């Protein structure tokens, strides 16, 4: 009887030791997973417990990590190839377009008739549209591969917005689009001025091309961020997917058939580079596109 009790106690003691060891090993797995998740570690999971179930779990996890890394490298290579392809296409298209514009200028100097002038004006219009599309392709590929540092400075977002709208007055007038000013106080940001101006220009150009009526502009601030919102009516809200407007090459409705769909992608990319964000909201037939930018230098020292 005593021998049986001793054996049971020994077995119980061994089981307790095994459970403690198992718990320690699970804690180790947890720490290793957290390190991979939050610290960017690429180390594989290691185990010291002689338990086939735990070892198999760790082995399967390591296989998943290896597959994820392979997929990441493949996607990275494809993205690099995409950027190079877009840059090459943009460059190849610029050369013949420059020749076309040069010959158009020569033809305009040869005293064309009234009918010929109208035809040349149509050619010039489409040439300008093509040039804009090419510039979008080139700019997007450049921004994706641009490793230059952001140069943050404090300036008035309201003033820059007003200047960009004023510079687009002729195009707005041609489209018979009026600009209504909503909340438009003196709001400053800490951002790269050149990139911010590019954001505003793209937002205004987007409205000029796609708005079905007058636009409304608001510049506000909250919680350390400035927000620029430009709203405009759309002709067919049912075909607009706000969550996809910033996807590259997404063009929404048929009215965007002359667009690359890269203008708003550039807006999002630039805003993210400056620790801001871009979003879109559709309420009824009113589409509102907003960009937020930080108002403090500390936003750039956090990363």
Q: Find the count of extended strands (DSSP E, 2+ residues).
A: 7
Strand content: 15-25%
Give, in order, the helices and strands: HHHEHHEEHEEHEEH
| Poorly predicted runs of 5 or more residues | none
* CATH superfamily (homologous) name of the largest domain: Histidine kinase-like ATPase, C-terminal domain
Placed side by side, the strands forming the largest sheet appear as 2-4-5-7-6
Number of helices: 8
Could you give the distance between the termini? 68 Å
Radius of gyration: 29 Å
Largest beta sheet, briefly?
A: 5 strands, mixed
Structural summary, described in words:
- The protein has 303 residues and is α+β, with helices and mostly antiparallel strands.
- It folds into 2 domains: 74-145, Helix Hairpins; 153-301, Histidine kinase-like ATPase, C-terminal domain (Heat Shock Protein 90, 2-Layer Sandwich).
- It has 8 helices and 7 strands, in the order αααβααββαββαββα.
- It has helices spanning 2-38, 52-108, 114-145, 157-167, 169-174, 193-210, 263-273, 298-301, and strands at residues 153-156, 179-184, 188-191, 215-222, 225-233, 277-283, 286-294.
- α6 (193-210) runs antiparallel to α7 (263-273).
- It is elongated.
- The N and C termini lie far apart (68 Å).
């Amino acid at each position: 009887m005593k021998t049986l009790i001793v054996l049971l106690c020994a077995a119980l003691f061994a089981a307790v030791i095994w459970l403690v060891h198992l718990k320690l090993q699970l804690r180790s797995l947890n720490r290793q997973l957290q390190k991979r998740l939050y610290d960017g570690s690429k180390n594989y999971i290691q185990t010291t417990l002689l338990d086939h179930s735990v070892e198999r779990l760790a082995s399967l996890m390591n296989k998943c990590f290896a597959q994820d890394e392979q997929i990441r490298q493949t996607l990275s290579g494809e993205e690099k190839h995409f950027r190079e392809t877009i840059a090459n296409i943009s460059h190849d298209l610029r050369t013949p377009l420059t020749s076309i514009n040069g010959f158009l200028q020569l033809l305009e100097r040869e005293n064309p008739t009234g009918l010929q002038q109208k035809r040349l004006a149509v050619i010039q219009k489409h040439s300008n549209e093509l040039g804009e599309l090419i510039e979008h392709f080139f700019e997007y590929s450049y921004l994706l591969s641009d490793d230059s540092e952001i140069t943050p400075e404090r300036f008035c977002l309201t003033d820059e917005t007003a200047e960009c709208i004023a510079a687009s007055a002729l195009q707005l007038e041609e489209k018979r689009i009026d600009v209504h000013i909503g909340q438009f106080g003196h709001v400053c940001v800490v951002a790269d001025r050149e990139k911010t101006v590019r954001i505003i220009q793209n937002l205004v150009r987007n409205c000029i091309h796609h708005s079905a009526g007058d636009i409304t502009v608001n510049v506000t601030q909250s919680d350390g961020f400035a927000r620029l919102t430009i709203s405009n009516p759309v002709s067919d809200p049912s075909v607009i997917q706000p969550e996809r407007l910033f996807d590259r090459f997404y063009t929404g409705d048929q009215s965007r058939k002359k667009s690359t769909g890269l203008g708003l992608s550039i807006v999002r990319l630039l805003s993210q580079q400056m620790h801001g964000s871009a979003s879109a909201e559709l309420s009824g037939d009113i589409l509102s596109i907003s960009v937020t930018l930080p108002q403090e230098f500390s936003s750039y020292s956090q990363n």
